[in-house]
Amino acid sequence: MYRRLIALSRSFSTHENIFKQYLKQAEQIAEEEKKKAEEVKIDTEQLLGPKESGLIDPALKYLKATKLIEKIIKTKSIERIQLMIEDALYDVSKNYKEKKDQEEDVLKPMELVQKLTELWVERPDLKVLDVPSASIFRTILISSISENKGYFGKFQRITKNEEGEFNPFFYGEFSEEFCKNMIKGIGKTAPGVRVIRRVIDHLAAYDIEPSTELVNLIVEESVQGRWPKVLLTTLEYAVKKRTKIPLETWSKAIKFFRFCSEHFDKASICINLAIKTGVDPDYDLIEPLVAKNLKHGRIEEAKDLVSMLRKEILNRNRVNAILVREEQAKKTVEVMKKFINTLLDARKPKPAHEYYDEYIRDPYTNKISESYEIGFKLYQDIGDVRDGIWLYEFIKEDKKFEWNQKLVTSLLKMVNEFGKPALEAAIDKAQQIFVNKELYSTFALNLLITYFGRHEVWDQLQAIVLKLLETKSEVNKYTKLTLERQIEKCLNPAYKRQILDKVKLIEFPEEVPEEAK
């Protein structure tokens, strides 16, 4: 009995201690909340300034008069906070609509939005439930206009074929920053398309010219959200307002339409809009449509797009006629090169061959070394020995044309693939590179050594070795290794020894590491 009384006494003592601890914690929490409330009050007073201050801006003056900050801090419900901000914006919008033509420095809704956004960042106590201010403003922007609110007028929407009412909460022009805050990151959200439509319609209603950055952002979010109509409407409006849109943005939009089966035709509209705005006619503009047409076997349609782009390049005016011709030639050749690569990627070597053949045989096209490089590479890839050699002879007949180092290398790469039928071209270039030093390169030299050794043309290989000794032309650390490997194939011991003795007289750079052999 005595033991039970002692146990019961200890139990009461334990519960009493626990109760005291809870009571102490409650007192500490109450004290902290009181202290925090006092700090908030002091911060708010410092933020809004004294009553007699004449330096306070209209937005802060309004916040102080309505005590909106204090109300937001005390409220724990997001819905309630939204309603309070909504009422404040409506009040400011109504006042601005009535007095904007009569008084100066009337508070605008955008000024209040900007100030609230700043405070949301600066004041931790305003970050209710970690909800960003942009989220609240987006909700207000797309909320149904209440019947209690006044009528602010109508306008014709551009994102939909219907009339819309001016938003009673954001009356007046949107700021650039506000538009970006509303749009950024909404591409993958359910209400995103409604937000972006409201922003675009509002810009059009007030005839505002969107910036390049804003258009880029709208395009990016529209692609993310897969909103083709909104995307095209934005681009058309931006073109109308003469906003400068970069090539990358056009390419992104066109590529997006290429994968929208129901809106594939809009890609062509985008190309025309881009060219209309003066964007540099680049192959990237048409590549998505070209690839799509090739995928479905519409080769002529793809060629028409390339022809259109080439004509646009030729129609662009420049001041200096000579520079124009060179610049146009380089651009048209670049377009041709990319188109041929697209054809080859689509496994259509025959159309690629036909297209290049048509270009190279046209007497009116301005041919440059790059256009011949494309031909050598094409014939090498598809293994067309006859036309590859024909192209070499075709260039050779043009006495005014000057070869360069890069073109010589392209030819020798093709020659190595073609073998004995291209022997004449190899011998010709082996002689020329030692006569014209501008054509000489160690890469071309090593290609010739490889060719003559692989096809056992030992007299030509020996001629190269003698020329190296005579002219003391540049060699690299791989030239010796290449020579030794090819000479090793020679089955005539005397001839082999004779060539190797000459090779030993050539001064080579440091030895090639064993792992490279």
From TrEMBL:
Q: Which domain of life is it from?
A: Eukaryota
Q: Is Coiled coil one of the keywords? A: yes
Keyword annotations from UniProtKB, A to Z: Coiled coil
The chain's coiled-coil residues are 20-47
Q: What is this protein called?
A: Uncharacterized protein
Origin species: Blepharisma stoltei
Q: What is the lineage of its organism?
A: Eukaryota, Sar, Alveolata, Ciliophora, Postciliodesmatophora
